[in-house]
Predict the structure.
Amino acid sequence: MNQLDSLYQQIILEESKTRRGADLTPEQALDTHLPATMGQCHQLNPVCGDEITLRIETSGSTVSGIHWAGDGCSISMASASILSDMVVGVDRNEVQSLIDRFREVMRSRGKLAADEEVLGDAAALSGVSKFPARVKCAMLAWVAAEDALNQTR
Ligand code: ZN
């Protein structure tokens, strides 16, 4: 394993324990009557057993909050934690392009290198793209965030 790979593994391990943004309460997770500035999405990855309910809050064109509840493998939890650290205070269009870029790398089967300048710590997950069965684990929170964001106005 090279140095970058082991650094990336360390980031995944730490983020999977930290679970930034994992503060959605059970009551909130069940709440379906959200104001137009919020969106919420539940995603399940039956292959691995990963599950997430993720809420996005917006203020104007800016993402002002992200909260989630869920459980799953370390890749899915690290990915949700990393995502949560990246989007608050960011313009919604920029968040969407981050999601697009991350999806592109994840679907590349290891062919696309993640640009750390753009993807930050999410670049640590780029190695997952070599393992198609685990791509859904890494994408789970991002798919939920995209859906939640699309519900907001
Ligand atoms: Zn998983």
